[in-house]
Design brief:
Layout (H helix, E strand, L loop, with lengths): L4 E8 L2 E5 L4 H9 L3 E5 L20 E4 L6 H13 L3 E2 L3 H8 L1 H8 L6 E4 L5 H8 L4 E5 L11 E2 L5 H12 L6 E5 L9 E6 L2 E3 L7 H7 L6 E8 L5 E8 L10 H9 L3
Helix pairs in contact: 1-8, 3-4
């Protein structure tokens, strides 16, 4: 672990000496491996307060691991880091380049389902019908619908219901609407890879060539790549995300922490 890098985690409101529950195991693993971690009150960011413990030191590189922030809130957040003398590893441009599908799609369009971007307005359903797709995978620029209803619309008229669920459970539609052509993937084949400072990390023993090809096109310092497989064996890109706000999914905390230990 690089001594000049500090990783910030939101604390557990019920146990302020621990990271919030989804991050506690990796927080512990990284600390036990000699990494420098700090905790902060995520909810206080809304009140423009930021008091990480231990404090950020001057010229210290800072990486975040925590809840998603829209671009405006992320800009605010890294502004606090700068004010305390730290240097965010991921700037705003790098963050949005992976956090929003509209930013990375053109770089990787041949590897991923065809996608069209729209505003969530009165023209959306009419525009969707013009695509003449048999099915639509519906999401905003960041997330799909995670409720039991899912994100697949069998007709254009179903798109509005899915967007309403996304808005209800996430609070807003971020960026705009992304309609993706439906592709049939084999069940349980989706895998998440991480890329840190240009190096690809796998949760298993092998990495598909597609992951390496995608990683070479994305210039962010820390991001995730989700790949799934079709019945004919072809690998396809499902999603790219900013690594700071990407869930580690099937990764063990020990395996995940090696991403940073390897950069010591």
């Amino acid at each position: 672990m690089q001594t000049q890098m500090r990783i910030l985690y939101p604390f557990n409101p019920l146990k302020p000496d621990e990271a919030d529950e989804p991050y506690q195991d990796e927080f512990t693993s990284i600390k036990n491996s000699g990494g420098k971690c700090s905790l902060f009150d995520f909810d206080s960011l809304a009140f423009d307060e930021f008091k990480p413990k231990p404090a950020i030191t001057q010229e210290e590189a800072v990486l975040y691991r925590g809840w998603m922030l829209n671009p405006e809130k992320y800009q605010n957040f890294i502004g606090h880091i700068h004010q305390q003398g730290g240097i965010p590893i991921t700037n705003l441009d790098s963050y949005t380049s992976c956090h929003h599908i509209s930013e990375w799609y053109e770089l990787c369009k041949e590897f991923t389902p065809e996608t069209k971007f729209f505003q969530n307005d009165e023209n959306l359903i009419r525009n969707a019908k013009l695509l003449n797709w048999p099915k639509y995978f519906v999401k905003d620029y960041v997330k799909s619908n995670s409720t039991e209803r899912g994100s697949i619309a069998n007709a254009a008229e179903e798109i509005a219901d899915i967007l309403e669920l996304i808005e209800t459970y996430r609070g807003s539609i971020e960026g705009g609407v992304a309609l993706r052509a439906f592709e049939d993937f084999l069940k349980d084949t989706e895998t998440r890879y991480f890329v840190f400072k240009g190096k690809v990390y796998s949760p298993g023993s092998s990495t598909p060539a597609l992951v390496t090809a995608i990683a070479a096109r994305i210039k962010s310092p820390f991001f995730s790549i989700d790949i799934a497989q079709k019945a004919d064996g072809e690998f396809r890109l499902i999603e790219i995300g900013d690594g700071q706000v990407s869930d580690k999914k099937s990764w063990s905390a020990e395996n995940f922490s090696k991403i940073f230990i390897d950069n010591a």
